[in-house]
Amino acid sequence: MNSKRVSGNPSLRRGVGSKTTDSDKIMEDPPAGDWLTLRSDQLLEWIDNAVYNVAETTGMREVVNRVTRPIFNYGQRFSPHPLHFGIMCCAIEMGQASAPDHDIDRLGLVYRSSPRQCDVLIVNGPVCEKLRPKLKTLYEQMPEPKWVIAMGECAISGGPYWDSYSVVAGADTFMPVDVYIPGCPVRPEALMHGFLTLQKKIREKEPGMFLRR
Amino acid sequence: MEIKELMQKLSALKGASNASMIRDNVVKLDIDKNSSKEFFTKLRDDFGFEHCSLITAIDNQPEFELVYHFTSVNKSVTVGSTDMSVMTEVHVFLERDTPTIESISDLWGGANWHEREAFDLMGIYFVGHPDLRRVLLPEGFAGHPLRKDYVYEIHEEEW
Amino acid sequence: MAEMWISMGPQHPMTHGLWTLKVKVDGETITDADPELGYLHRSVEKMGERRKYFMNTTLTDRLCYASSTTWTHSYVLTVEELMNVEVPERAKYIRTIMLELQRLASHLMWAGAYMPDLGHITGALYFWRDRELFLNLLEVPSGSRLLYNYIRIGGVKRDLPDGFVEKTERVFKLFEKRLDEYADLFENSKIFRMRTQDVGNFTAAQAQNLGITGPNMRGCGTKFDLRRNDPYEIYEEIDWDIQTREAGPGYSDCFSRYMVRIDEMKESIRIIRECFKKMPKGPTLASTIPIRAQGEAFRRTEDSRGEALMYIVGDGTDRPYRWKIKSPMFTTISACPHYLKGYKLADIPAIMGSIDICIGETDK
Fold first, then answer.
1. In B, which residues are within 8 Å of A162 by CB distance?
2. Per-residue pLDDT for chain A (213 aa), expressed as one digit of tens each?
3. Which one of A200, A205, A211, B37 has the fewest CB atoms closer than 10 angstroms to its CB?
4. Choosing among C45, C210, C315, which should be mutated to test the B contact, i.e. which has the most B CBs within 10 A?
5. Is A130 in CB contact (< 8 Å) with chain B?
6. Is C108 part of the contact surface with chain A (CB cutoff 8 Å)?
7. Alpha carbon of A74 to those of A54, A77, A196, A200: distances in Å?
């Protein structure tokens, strides 16, 4: 699901730290006429474009991003909300990691049941042919930004079921994976190390652009 | 009744042959395919085997073999003075081209899904089953994987 | 009111494991149900035909991940019957101890997953904290927390180390005290009783016909336990009782099925204490184990969830010709229209949780 909206000139797809002061590269004016006659989505688009044009021409956008980017990054790093999804043995160790002895919840994890409210998808078991389309749907329903952790041997490469006629050889054959955690089953300490690796990865990336562009 | 008496009575029924004992509490025999439904009805009603444990399908290369296991929970058959519960193991042989047999899912509710699995993985058709479709494999899957002549790709070499 | 089908799909917090339950509701009352399995089908039976007999113990551990030693044990017993292997006495006692510790860990896993279904999230934390004690105990002889590969053909992998008996006694003293405290939180709580009593009833005759075994059948009052009625290892030489409960004459509900498992946990502690007293010294692995096998054999054991049966056919080579696994949960899930009809939609987590589903063994 592409949540970016580009209107007007598509060559204006903004990357990191873009600066432009050319007045002809700025997006075209919103539809003329009374703003009271616009539909709700057209009105939002008009406001969005107006604010964006002002911020881009005055250079405010870069200043605001420089302030908010670390804050958004901090928020994403310390509250990864995983999906309440368990396939096989590694899911039992994932559950046991939330138990009082290991307590992985101190990293900010809150398990959510609906994929619309999650950041992280943990694939913790072998992916069968029957499950593959449903897992792809779950991944596509998650909003950006999102990450995938492949937990255990079965999710990395098929594991002990490499010669089965109905197990897919790893989760990275049909979706992008960010962190691989080896083990069969994965100990709770290893899962915690996996989440700390994910935090390091989020820190190096630069998410959290204000104004969505 | 005692288990020896059970073995004699079962071998006297129509279509039964090759009766023998396994360990102390299991009676094993072969049954002809056409008189199987009658035999199973008598097994449940007269001899008291009220639990269907398992239905296995085996692919001996020239033919199919079905193995049924039944248990008696309520001590209608005893082994001396011990507490052991008695089981019956029944073998039925089917030909390769049209493996069909009558379904026993109206006698035992637990046999319903065992027959569906035998159909799904081995391709044996049960006549009279209320809902015979695939249970473990996805719906559009072609073929019956547990047959010995099912070919599929393995990405490593054999060892 | 119009009737409609609601699909509680593979990813759902209620379904412990990946399966779909489609229920037909008329308002809030359930009128029909249609379960769908197969999301975890790994073709263990076909893979087992490509591996040698002793290599299959890595596959059987992963059949039911909550109670893995009992499935390996079921497979190993069948192969020993096929190959005519004699197991030494000490190995039988060690196997019984590991099986009962595994049964305790499995029932604690079930209880910790059942409580959040009823809304009692604190219960999950209590039971899973106690499960850690038993996982640490099981780790001492075998080296792994969850999938042990400890029971081998002909005995066990290695002997129990020194100090194991004292560690186990310490854990039991702590755990028994805690079980008595939990009675106030769970059994004697009025809300728990309101949610579980008279919900999900089925009679003993229905259970036997539909293929429901194990603690679910013992919750109807039937005194049938494969450790007594088809004994294996050393269960005949120890003094222990079969635990049954019933909600009324010959039928069960969620509360009686819950109480049967709590009673079984206390009985397991008693069995392990008796084993420690009577254990002889000696070897722990048979001295000669054959490689090839011919013929057919089957054995059934009392898994934490019911009757587990394995049937193996050997053709004279060192790999099985046909290996069939019977799981108790396969037929129990197929019978769900019988114990779901007539109840409300909000009762589904309570009923399906009390059946104790583990999808790994069902889907093979």
1. 155-156
2. 444 454 445 444 444 444 444 444 445 444 555 666 677 777 777 777 888 788 778 877 778 778 888 888 888 889 999 999 999 999 999 999 999 989 998 999 999 989 999 989 999 999 998 999 999 999 999 987 889 999 999 999 888 898 888 898 889 899 999 999 999 889 999 999 999 999 998 888 765 555 554
3. A200
4. C210
5. yes
6. no
7. 27, 5, 13, 11
Q: How far is CA C200 from the centre of its chain?
A: 20
| A112's tokens | 């959510």
pLDDT number for residue C265: 93
Chain B residue nearest residue A166, CA to CA: B137
What is each CA distance from C34 to B112, B114, C2, C20, in whole angstroms? 13, 16, 18, 8
User: How many domains does one find in chain A?
Assistant: 2
CB atoms < 10 A from the CB of A108, how many?
A: 14
How many structural domains comprise chain B?
A: 1
Residues A114 and A184 reside in one and the same domain: yes
Q: Is residue A80 part of a domain?
A: no
CB contact under 8 A, C11 and A126: no
Residues of B in Cβ contact (< 8 Å) with A163:
154, 156
Rg of chain C over Cα atoms, rounded to whole angstroms, equals 21
Predicted confidence (pLDDT) per residue in A85-143, tens digit = 999 999 999 999 999 989 998 999 999 989 999 989 999 999 998 999 999 999 999 98
Give the model's confidence band at C97: pLDDT under 50 very low, under 70 low, under 90 confident, else very high: very high
Q: Which residues of C80-117 are buried (b: 16+ CB within 10 A; e: fewer)?
A: bbbbebebbebbbbbbbbbbbbbbbbbbbbbbbbbbbb
How far is C38 from C20, CA to CA, in rounded Å? 9
Q: Residue A152's domain spans which residues?
A: 89-204
Q: Is the separation of the CB atoms in C339 and C107 below 8 Å?
A: no
Q: What is the ipTM of this complex?
A: 0.92
Looking at the domain covering C3-363, what would its CATH class be?
A: mainly alpha
The C-alpha torsion from B51 through B52 and B54 to B55, rounded to 10°, is 170
Q: Compute the distance between CA of residue A136 and CA of residue A103 in angstroms, rounded to an integer.
A: 29
The tokens for B148 are 């010995």
Same domain? For A39 and A127 the reply is no
Query: Of B20, B108, B123, B13, nearest to B66 (Cα)?
Result: B123
Tracing tokens 């596509």 back to the chain, one arrives at A140
